[in-house]
């Protein structure tokens, strides 16, 4: 019996470059297995594909070792945030309020 292959994309953006690659995997392949098959770990040696957070089309996947990919999925590998977005907004608002108070 012939194994049905599906196409998925794997994407990762480092600070200095980004890569989007297509990979053909057998139907029923898990997200983590598709990542390993893509070879993106060879392109970005700093990636720990066993532990890195991943998602599909912007939605984080809880357990990538059991979630099967579907044809056309875009698997995204996430980097840790350098700064908390809420804290950045709070600091920016405080700075704007301070500047406004000085100008009055």
Highlighted features:
104 residues, alpha+beta, Ubiquitin-like (UB roll), 5-stranded mixed beta sheet, 3 helices, 5 strands, 30% helix, elongated, RnfH, UPF0125 protein BVK86_18015
List the helices and strands and how they pair.
Elements: E1 5-13, E2 18-26, H1 31-38, H2 40-43, E3 54-56, E4 59-60, E5 74-77, H3 85-103
Parallel strand pairs: 1-5
Antiparallel strand pairs: 1-2, 3-4, 3-5
One letter per element, helices H and strands E, the order comes to: EEHHEEEH
Q: Mean of the pLDDT scores?
A: 89
Alpha-carbon Rg, integer: 19 Å
Secondary structure: helix percent: 25-40%
- Tally of structural domains: 1
**In which order are the strands of the major sheet placed?**
2-1-5-3-4
Number of helices: 3
Sheet with most strands: 5 strands, mixed
Low-confidence stretches: none
Secondary structure: number of strands: 5
CATH superfamily: Beta-grasp domain
Q: What is the architecture at the second tier of CATH? A: Roll
Pfam families: Ub-RnfH
InterPro entries: Mopterin_synth/thiamin_S_b, RnfH, RnfH_sf
Protein name: UPF0125 protein BVK86_18015
Organism: Pseudomonas reinekei
Give an overview of the whole structure.
The chain has 104 residues and is α+β, with helices and mostly antiparallel strands. The protein has one domain (5-103): Roll (Ubiquitin-like (UB roll)), CATH 3.10.20. The protein has three helices and five strands. The mean pLDDT is 89.
């Amino acid at each position: 019996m012939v194994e049905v292959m599906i196409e998925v994309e794997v994407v990762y953006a480092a600070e200095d470059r980004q890569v989007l690659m297509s990979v053909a995997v057998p139907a029923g392949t898990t997200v983590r297995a598709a990542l390993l098959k893509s070879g993106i770990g060879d392109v970005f040696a700093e990636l720990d594909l066993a532990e890195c957070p991943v998602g599909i089309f912007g939605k984080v996947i809880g357990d990538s070792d059991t979630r099967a990919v579907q044809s056309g999925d875009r698997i995204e590998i996430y980097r840790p945030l350098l700064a908390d977005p809420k804290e950045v907004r709070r600091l920016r608002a405080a700075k704007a309020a301070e500047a406004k108070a000085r100008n009055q």
